[in-house]
Request: fold
Amino acid sequence: MNDLPTDRPLRTVRSFVRRQGRTTPSQEKGFTQYSADFLLSIANGSLDFAATFGRTAPVVLEIGIGNGDTLLHLAEGNPDRDYIGIEVHRPGVGRVLVEIGQRSLPNVRLFAEDAIDVLKQCIPDASLDGVLLFFPDPWHKKKHHKRRIVQASFAALVGSKLKRGGYLHMATDWEHYAEQMMEVMSAESGFCNQAGAGAFSARPEGSRPFTRFEKRGERLGHGVWDLIFEKL
Ligand SMILES: C[S@@+](CC[C@H](N)C(=O)[O-])C[C@H]1O[C@@H](n2cnc3c(N)ncnc32)[C@H](O)[C@@H]1O
Reply:
């Protein structure tokens, strides 16, 4: 007979495996010096954007900011918008904290936690103007596809957090994942594909800077697929 305890929560499939990467002294300094001003925590529950940023402005959230190049570029170039960046890899967050602090960017906040938990527990419904997901881990092997962050449940969750007219912009350099993104998003009734049914978007100038990650992909001969879906 199977005597599994009934009170143990089911293991959740996550879109990442925490890497052991060492946090450098400079990245650690990012946490000690700038956490109080720029790092948010799930433990504090649902966010009040006006209180968090000290003003009312459009809010764009980026999932999996990596080393933060995109987030920093967008926040610096769009001072009239507020940005929330989420990344599970602690060294990356430490680096971005240093940059935000040194550049004195008042319109950025970070979470060093799982974006799914942040969306569910901290982001009010119908509150976001945009969600960005650039080059999410592709989980190439078929047996790992369940780890891909873009699934029907993700599309529904993001849809619930976007305002009407808000957008989800995704990009990937892995064709099979691009096709999966298209399939998932096209099946989600609350969205409309800005490029037309089944079509990928042209690379939007300005709203997706050319990062080191993409340059590397280009050198390796990878294609890039953009998808932009508007919340109805
Ligand atoms: C391939 S990297 C791309 C980074 C960046 N977007 C870029 O374009 O250079 C994917 C990033 O997503 C992060 N990530 C994966 N799943 C995540 C999740 N559920 N919440 C937050 N970050 C996540 C990983 O740690 C990794 O840094």
Observations:
- The pocket of S-adenosylmethionine is lined by residues 15-16, 63-66, 86-89, 92, 114-116, 134-137, 149, 211, 213 (CB under 6 Å).
- The two ends are 50 Å apart (CA to CA).
- The first helix runs from residue 25 to 38.
